[in-house]
Amino acid sequence: MGWVESLQRAIDYMEEHLLEPFSIERIAKEANVSVFHFQRTFAILTDITVGEYFRRRRLTLAAQELSNTSCKVIDIALKYGYDTPEAFSKAFRRQHGITPSQAKNYHGKLKSYNRLMIQVSLKGADPMNYKIIERESFQVVGVKREFSCANGENLIGIPKMWDDVHADGTNDRLVKLNKGEINGIVGVCVDKSSYQAEPLIDYWVAVEYNGETQDGFMQLEIPASKWVVFEVHGAMPDAIQKVWKQISSEWFPSNQYTPAGTPELEVYFDGDPWSPDYYSEIWIPLKRD
């Protein structure tokens, strides 16, 4: 099954189970990827989290029922996963701008979020510069934090971690330790969802380094892999987010590879990260589909 077909299968599964308590683990299984990879790919392609997609779709269907049936508001609220009419009304107003009662009486406009169909561009209007390399295992040293992938918590926590390592001098200490082929600060994402009940990742800010672990730092071995290394040109964070979207929507759908599921890297080199000329890289370990 191809990359796009796997994602669409998971989305179709979500649509078929909209009225049930959703299990992100079960959804990711439909796509044959980890929870972390599914959530990240979904967010990259749609600009919303899986949880937000569920909320929008449920409230869209709830509005349709209110407008077209004689069901009571409380019954609609319970059907679409809200324990009280008050909670339902608050969520409904946030999405539609009117109350459920107003919708039932045809007062005001409704906002519809339709069933999602993944469409990707295989034309590659903007060229992607990349190379395929193979490397033996290597070591990085740095600091790590654990983040939950639930409700996009990692998307909030990781930028704060970067702020912290710059503010407390950790970044400068790591730069001095950097001894390896990768001559830059590395953001390493380690997916832990395959052996945790909760979808978790470890995120590292690190450098390639061979030697004894320095005080205050931990060591991580990056396994031997075939890597695709993408060039990123432009100011952070927009440039790297744009390339991640191209990777998900253009590169993987048109290649025979899928992510291997082992640690992925973002490499930040010396320079002004807000400059339009700034250069960075994305490293993804590969396996054949």
UniProtKB/TrEMBL annotation:
InterPro entries: AraC_E-bd, Cass2, Homeodomain-like_sf, HTH_AraC, HTH_AraC-typ_CS, MarA-like, Reg_factor_effector_dom_sf, Tscrpt_reg_AraC-type_HTH. The keyword Hydrolase does not apply. One of its GO terms (molecular function) is sequence-specific DNA binding. Keywords: DNA-binding, Transcription, Transcription regulation. Residues 8-106 form the HTH araC/xylS-type domain. Pfam families: Cass2, HTH_18. PANTHER family: RIGHT ORIGIN-BINDING PROTEIN (PTHR47504). This is AraC family transcriptional regulator.
